[in-house]
Amino acid sequence: MFKGARVLEMNVGQILFLEGDAATAFYFLLDGQVKLVTSAADGHEKIVDILQGGDLFAEAVAFLGYRYPVQAIAAMPSRVLEIPLTIFLVILQQHQELMLQMLGRLSLRLRHLIMELRHLTVESADQRVVGYLLELCPSGNSPVSLLLPAKKAMIAARLGLTPETFSRVLKRLREEHLITVEKLKIYIHRPSALRQWAKEDR
């Protein structure tokens, strides 16, 4: 563990940082689940990302000295490692290979955000849901059983959909015999068929 870092125990609904706070640290989610949210123009909460154990977050804004563009809220009991930026900058100066890894991670994060923007602005609801399910699948075309990493309403918000729309898409996929749904468990019969279904005009 980095000297000066600390582990934070968070309860459901507890706020880690607020949108607009100075980014003085970044975080590593040890276990649990944290959602990153922002306020939409209509005042409703918009989920930007759903983080799972093992995810590093807020490193880009902290590294660049910005303010947090979102707020982080525990979606379930969680443990988070808080790493102060001042300490990490000293470590980066001493270990250039770590700095290169950080720059590489920031580049991958930027690419991911660009892809997410495309999903939300160009793709249909069907394509967003199918794309999300396929991201959870391992490579190949074998049948796969998935456990959704969050509640359906939270995933729907992450995809820019209402819970009702998300449920309707899952229902259509069931009726087409492409998936089987048991609460948060989804069985995908053939990933390639699911991918093809999203491309067809309906």
Question: Rg from C-alpha positions?
Answer: 19 Å
Instruction: Let me know the largest β-sheet.
Output: 6 strands, antiparallel
Q: Helicity level, as a percent range?
A: 40-55%
Overall structural class, as computed from helix and strand content, comes to alpha+beta
Strand content: 25-35%
According to CATH, the fold-level topology of the largest domain is: Jelly Rolls
Question: What is the CATH architecture assignment of the largest domain?
Answer: Sandwich
Let me know the CATH homologous superfamily of the largest domain: Jelly Rolls
Cα-to-Cα separation, first versus last residue: 53 Å
Count of folded domains = 2
State the helix count: 7
Uncertain residue segments: none
Any idea what the shape is? elongated
CATH class of the largest domain: Mainly Beta
Order of helices and strands: EEEEEHEHHHEHHEEH
Structure summary, number of beta strands: 9
Mean pLDDT: 85
Explain this structure to me?
With 202 residues, this protein is α+β, with helices and mostly antiparallel strands. It has 2 domains: 117 residues, Jelly Rolls (Sandwich), CATH 2.60.120; 75 residues, Arc Repressor Mutant, subunit A. The chain contains 7 helices and 9 strands; from the N terminus they run βββββαβαααβααββα. The strands form 2 sheets. Strands 1, 2, 3, 4, 5 and 6 form a 6-stranded antiparallel beta sheet that branches. A 3-stranded antiparallel beta sheet has the order 7-9-8. It starts with 5 loop residues before the first strand and ends with a helix. The relative contact order is 0.14.
